[in-house]
Amino acid sequence: MLRKTKIFLLIGSVILLVLIVIFITRSLSSKTGIQPEPVIPESQIGTTSILNQSSPDIAFKTKQVLLPKLPIYLYNFKTSSGIATDISISSYKNDSPETIRIEIFGPDYLYNQTDPGTNPNMIAFKESFEKVISILVENNVNIKDLHISMGNKKYIRDIAEEWIKTLNLLP
Length: 171
What we know:
- The chain crosses the membrane at residues 7-25.
- Keywords: Membrane, Transmembrane, Transmembrane helix.
- By secondary structure, the protein is α+β, with helices and mostly antiparallel strands.
- The chain has 2 domains: 1-30; 48-166, no CATH class.
- It has helices spanning 2-28, 56-66, 120-138, 154-166, and strands spanning 72-77, 85-90, 99-105, 147-149.
- A 4-stranded mixed beta sheet has the order 1-2-3-4.
- α3 links the parallel β3 and β4.
- The longest helix is centred in the N-terminal third of the chain and has 27 residues, at 2-28.
- The chain starts with a helix and ends in a 5-residue tail after the last helix.
- Residues 41-47 have low confidence and may be disordered.
């Protein structure tokens, strides 16, 4: 009887171990195609951004031109700095009616690193942002007519806007 119990416990342990390994590999798997819907608290939305210079009416009308084509994703965009980026142009239900999200994943948004000569992340961001502008132009949209949020996290929005100013990326 003791031997049957040991065999039963051994088989149960092996099954449990296999299930744990399967669960861990599934949770660590790369892009699943499911996109999160981030929420930006009202307190984090800046109103004096260089990315919100057009009137809300113009931004709303411009967004309506682009909206049927959203979301636009560009994965593994190669930059000259060797940093591959993922680009997302989207709009979520909880965004204001005139706001478009432009998110550039890949660069490390470092504080106090605003010299493109020593910061390859700025170069990757610059080339990716220029690609965003060209995608918008292909879709008959001028970036200056949009209200743009550069992401879900305030520090990324702040640094991205600083880099856009430093690198003079807006037409």
